[in-house]
Design a protein that fits this description.
By secondary structure, the chain is mostly beta strands. It folds into 2 domains: about 10-120, Immunoglobulin-like (Sandwich), CATH 2.60.40; about 125-415, 7 Propeller (Methylamine Dehydrogenase, Chain H), CATH 2.130.10. It has helices spanning about 230-235, 400-410, and strands spanning about 10-15, 40-45, 50-55, 75-80, 85-90, 95-105, 110-120, 125-130, 135-140, 145-150, 165-170, 170-175, 180-185, 190, 200-205, 210-215, 215-220, 240-245, 250-255, 255-260, 270, 275, 285-290, 290-295, 300-310, 310-315, 325-330, 335-340, 345-350, 365, 380, 385-390, 395. The strands form 10 sheets. Strands 1-6-7-2 form a 4-stranded mixed sheet, with no helix packed on it. Strands 11-12-13-14 form a 4-stranded antiparallel sheet, with no helix packed on it. Mean pLDDT is about 75; it is low at about 1-35, about 60-75, about 360-365 and about 365-370.
Length: about 425
Amino acid sequence: MFDAKPSILIFFFLFCLSGCSGGGGGGGGGGDGDSEDINTILIQSDEDKPVIINLVDTDCATYLITYRPDPDDDRGGLIHCNENKLVYTPAKNYYGEARIVYANSAAANAAQTEIKISINKVPADEILSLSLGPNEYCAATANKVICFNDRYPGVTSPPPSVQPKLVSTWRDTCVIDIDGLHCYEEENRTLVSTPAFYNPIFVDQGSGYACAIDDYGLSCWGESPYIEMSSISNSAIYNPDSVSLSAEHACVIYLGVLECWGNNIFNTILKDNRAIAPPLVAPVFVATGPTATCAIANRDIECWGLISDSSAIIDIAPLVPSNFSDPQQVAVGASHACAIDDGEVICWGIDRLNRLGDEPNRYIAIFGDKHSLSNPKFLSIYRDHTCVVDDNGVSCWGGLDTSNITSDVPAELYSR
């Protein structure tokens, strides 16, 4: 911040970006072609952090009106004057150079004061876990849990945690941190009662129920009209390879065998009325969606069940790509699925809401380059939205307006 003591209360302000030409010619003032003196002040700031400039003995609010740059220019920001404070707020996630020039507008050839603001890029926190749910999307970093796209606008505080390792969102938000497993109501962050766990390493949620893995194996709690909780907890599953829960069914891979429980009305558990496990060779990962399931086995992906939106209900199996190299993870939504394969994100399904990241009305798309993903690590899907964590942080797309979910990702989760 700095103090400026101009001789008159009315100023001329010019805002531009790093592409502005030097000197004061663009800053108004004399306007007669004569050279003008410019005093330059340098300020350092960070992205998404307002810069406050004190104008001493000046009530600029009387004369200055909030100025916004070209709305088509996402590099710009907002200049706001309140009493004797000039506030510059960079555009969300913008880093680079900004420039403000002011001068005495009543005097010819008046000296101008130029403020050069260098907005530093803030590195994203290392992200350890990501979960998309019906009420909010959350990521666990090494220091805290960060949530966004909240369905409860009044909730601003993240769920309490100390050195979190994993987060899961659905009806509640569950966190595994240094103190164990804790679950909170998403609307008011009230602590929810859960069973006691010893050294928990995994938690996932469905509609009204949840399962966790600790030193004693897999245990589930809650209620589901489609799943008998005791059938999972009593199955003596110790340290399973993969667990996935959805609203109406759950699947586990244990000792090279895939086992599922729940509603099979859409062939989500069984395929063609037979157990899906025998055809799979060495399954290592399973993902459940509302009415479809996908599994990674023998360096390939097989899916079964139905996907749908308001315009179509189709079998997911014929849409699965056949050219996987070494898939690492897969996620399934109501109408599409995505996988991380050989440094690329591949999606398939119904794409009328840009779920696949490509042109609408397509049924399959590959878009690793489209989102400039760098070494994608893991992903999560809910409804129309897909979010991926790569070297740059969290990147999201999908829905009627992809920019809405993209801009909602906090700056501390994405280093642009």
